[in-house]
Amino acid sequence: MSTTAIERRVVRESLAVGPALALTAAAGLLLARAVPDVTRKPWHEDEAVAGLISARPLGDGLHTVLLDRGGAPLHFVLGHLAFAVDGSPRTLRWLSLVFALATIPLCYDLARRVAGQFAGVTAALLAATSQLLGIYATFGRMYSLFACASALSLDLFVRAVDRPTRRTIACATAAALLTILVHPFGVFVFGAELVVGLWLSRGRLLPPALLAVPLVLPYLRLPGRYAPDVGMSPPEAALRALGGSAGGYGAGLLVTAMLAAIGAWTLPRGFAALALLLVALPPLALTAFGSDKLSPRHLIFVLPVWTTLVAAGVSRLPARAPVAGAAMLVVLLAPTAVADPRTSSTDAAQASTWVREHVRAGDALYPYSAPFLAALPRAAAAQPLPREPVALARILRRTHTIRRTLVAIPNGRAWSILVVPGPFTNVPDALARAAPRLHGLARAAALQLYATSTEGTSPHSSSRR
Fold first, then answer.
1. Which H or E run includes 364?
2. pLDDT over 50 at 200, yes or no
3. What is the enclosing helix (H) or strand (E) of 408?
């Protein structure tokens, strides 16, 4: 074999191994950032929702999710299966980390398909260093799963557009439907792909869209569950979701936005239209038709498309390798666009130990709280109850026997557990008697729980919106 042939072979092998090494490095970077948070971060109430429902028998958990709360079931099903292997609450965080890691190669393949291998590697590195994925990689809810499902759906959609066979279209349709099972906002991913698919196929893809109807029906119960009074407006949440995906906030977001605009201009028009719909349509629709405030994590589905646009823009510029390095530096040093919600200083260790030692079948746990989550798997013997009045009323209506209720009350430094004998209807009076003896945060929390428990036990609460 000649020297030239050997050199060419070395180049081909290095080109083949390069992306694998880059993906390994990206995954290692995310692991180094995220793994310490599995044990270091305090538990959040949203994680308690996922953990306490997932730990219930599967049928009861699905009833709670679909009919009582009106949410998406897939993460709860996966959490239930994971708890069958290990009942520790940290299992939820490890599950999130698995899907966060899976998001990285999917972002690579999506960008590679539409903009080439260099863009694919850049997108993978952007995903691994994103603020959103760094935080929610270890948050025990469905958000990293949502990012992963969105990346998978977009990747298979591009594949179906490039090679429109029955198999590729079926896979793309199934992946798009999957996003609806992960989070209610999966309808934005499905809807954007449907619009672009109808445009490219001249309407031939309309029948598969009907498959989404039964998946959306549970969400009809969602608006009546509760009205969030915390968060931010949809436009601000969307900007922070984009910055949390790549760019941070302020000047860093402007830089990545310019790169994303270059990428959108150079990409195939079908994907550019899809990207525009995913970025612009949700905040516009939520502003026009919704009143709830949001968090950037609810829009984490934009992460794959935003990293793809930015990576495509980088790959189209001269001296793209130095530009990619500079862009990564901007991303790493940019101001934070999203904040980690796990900031509580209330220690749940002592309360969770008491719960593990004293909880028994026939108990109820009110509300979904950190000490109850930390007490898993022992706490799975009891019936968890939400603080939202409408969902609470629905669960109480089908829960026939509650011998006593354990009420978790934060007091600023630790958690107190109030034991209320008898049915749940005794809880409001017990909280009313306890509130005057409490002070500060504990008193405010008891009064809030009194209000929600009173409304939840009201005869008309199940019909309130």
1. strand 363-366
2. yes
3. strand 404-410
Instruction: For 412-459, write each residue's pLDDT tens digit.
Output: 888 999 999 999 999 999 999 998 888 888 888 888 898 888 887 776
| Residue 243: its H or E element | helix 234-245
Q: Checking DSSP bridges between strand 404-410 and strand 415-421, what pairing results, if any?
A: antiparallel
Residues 289, 302: Cα–Cα separation, whole Å: 20
Which residues have C-beta within 8 Å of that of residue 46, sequence separation ≥ 6?
Answer: 139, 140, 141, 341
Question: pLDDT of 107-124, one tens digit each?
Answer: 999 999 999 999 999 999
> Sorting pLDDT into bands at 50, 70 and 90, what band is 464?
very low
Angle between helices 303-315 and 320-333 (to 10 degrees): 140
Give the alpha-carbon dihedral of 242, 245, 248, 251, to 10 degrees: -50
Per-residue CA distances from 353 to 66, 165, 369, 373, 397 (Å): 31, 56, 14, 11, 30
Burial class (CB in 10 A: 0-12, 13-18, 19+), 128: buried
Structural contact between residues 44 and 342, judged by C-beta atoms closer than 8 angstroms: yes
Task: Name the residue among 223, 152, 139 with its Cα closest to residue 181.
Answer: 152
Question: Which range, of 23-32, 110-119, 253-262, 280-289, averages the lowest pLDDT?
Answer: 280-289
Are 111 and 308 a contacting pair, CB within 8 Å? Answer: yes
Contact 127, 85 (CB under 8 A): no
- Does residue 377 have a cis bond before it (omega within 30 degrees)? yes
β-pair partners for 408 = 417
Name the residue among 86, 99, 104, 96 with its Cα closest to residue 29: 104
Residues 6+ apart with CB under 8 A from 22: 108, 121, 124, 125
In sequence order, what DSSP letters do the residues of 43-70 get, joined into one string? P-HHHHHHHHHHTS-HHHHHHIIIIII-
| Mean pLDDT calculated for residue range 374-391 | 94
DSSP of 274-309? HHHHHHHHHHHHHHHH----B-GGGGGGGHHHHHHH
The whole-angstrom separation of Cα 62 and Cα 232 is 30
Confidence of residue 204 (pLDDT cuts 50, 70, 90): low
The token duo for 180 is 């609806």
